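Continuing the series of single-chain predictions for the mutant panel. This is the parent chain; the variants come on the following pages.
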Amino acid sequence: MDESKTTKLLRQQAALASFGSFALRQSDLLAVLSEAARVCAESMDVPYSKVCRYRAAENDLLVEAGFGWKPGVVGNVVSRADPSSPQGRAFSTGEPSICRDLREDSEFKLPAFYAEHGIISTVDVIIKGTDEPYGVLEIDNDRQCDYDEHDINFLTGFANVLAEAVATSDRTATLRSTIAQMETVAEEKDRLLDQKKMLAEELQHRVRNNLQLIYGMLDKQVNDTPDPEGRRGLKAIVRRVSTLAQVYDHLLGREMTRTSDFGGYLKSLCASLVKIQDASRGAVTLTCTSDEIFLDLNSVTALGLIVTELLANSFDHAFPDGSGTITVDAQAADGPDDMATITVRDDGPGFTVSTESKRHGLGLVRRLAEQLGGTTEVESDHGTLWTIRFPVLPVAAPAQ
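Parent structure:
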């Protein structure tokens, strides 16, 4: 190999290595194809080069990128993807197509731009793809030229680098499309969650407002009912409605979470129940303490009703002279059984088994405790002490 050919070969190898590095860094496929056309033309000492992309629907080869061509060629000119053109022959056979003199090859049907640019010789090599070839890489010369195996190897290597760049571009496009779809799904999920939250909040507000309306109507009816027994029954209903309203108030205050601190709810419930009692009942002091106990909404509701019934009975039956003390205390689970405890104690005269049956709501207390998997105990000696024990399942605290 003479010195000029050696120099050309070394220049081609350096150009291929440099282009490979460029193709790996560049994410714009058209920029990669355009640079490939330029580097190929300069490395092969020809005035023109182009990259043709195969279009399956049209079964043709579109000039996607090029170097040296007049305006109107790149992005517009096509050739049939069959042996009727030099690039079509390379595409259909998969082998390099070398034309030393197009004027002597009458089998080709060439687009007009070949003659307009005075193209005489061409070399085409296929650009492979994952499923089907991407297209062809072609160099064009306006003079006769003999191309050796080193030239063909250089162009074939260049086409292989282009094939990998095309595959990388396809993978990147697929990844970006997948990410875009995931972002769309995430946005739709957030939109649906916001819509669900809005509907839930509206429902909760409606329920709370209806409970308050019912409470007001029943409270008025209590004052208008002359019969003591009837008034007592209405007041029991009023207390239960008020308890449910407190649940919804607490729930809304926690921004619709399904988990609530029962301790905070219990204190607000006790304060509310004190206000419901008749002023004529005298000075009854109610003290409420509680650990921080996180429970689900169903447990909060049931325990709220339990405390309501026990306080109501203490208010109504424990203090004949209209004064006394009631203490409510809730303690978190302590011990291997994971059972929390609520105690309700009054310092009234207590009651016997025969008088317990006369107290309203105590059957409800036991049924609600059993539904929670809990137990009830009552002691009546120098006052009355109710002890409610119930399991506390693991529930995460709501986000602050």
